[in-house]
Amino acid sequence: MEKFDPVICECANITRSEIIDLIKKKKLSTVVEIADESDVAGMCGACIEKIENILNEVYTHLLL
Ligand code: FES
After folding, report:
1. Is the CB of 63 under 6 A from ligand 1?
2. What is the pLDDT of residues 29-60, one digit of tens each?
3. How many Å apart are CA 63 and CA 2, to the nearest integer?
4. DSSP-based three-state secondary structure for 4
5. Shortest CA distance to 17 belongs to which of 28, 30, 26, 8?
6. pTM assigned to the model
7. Contacts of 11 (CB under 8 A, 6+ apart)
8. Is 23 in the pocket of ligand 1 (CB under 6 A)?
């Protein structure tokens, strides 16, 4: 668990570390896949860009 763990999707109340855990556990690589596995990005869509950034970070820095 990260010390600073901001809520990324306000609609579903899902935090950055929860999204990273999901990406790692299920080997997800797109926002659509993450949305299929959780409530993220299912409502207003304001979090989509933030989720794309997290995906880039995970794969660029090989946090897997
Ligand atoms: S903030 Fe994620 S769907 Fe609204």
Report:
1. no
2. 999 999 999 999 999 999 999 999 999 999 99
3. 13
4. coil
5. 8
6. 0.88
7. 39, 42, 43, 44, 46, 47
8. no
Name all domains of the chain by residue range, CATH numbers in brackets.
7-60 (1.10.10.1100)
Residue 62's pLDDT band (boundaries 50, 70, 90)? low
Nearest CA residue ID for atom 1, ligand 1 = 9
Arithmetic mean of pLDDT over the chain? 92
Q: Ligand 1 centre and the CA of 51: distance in Å?
A: 10
Ligand 1 centre distance from Cα of residue 55 (Å): 16
Q: What are phi and psi of 6, to 5 degrees?
A: -70, 150
Question: If you measure from the C-alpha of residue 27 to the centroid of ligand 1, how many angstroms do you get, rounded to a whole number?
Answer: 22
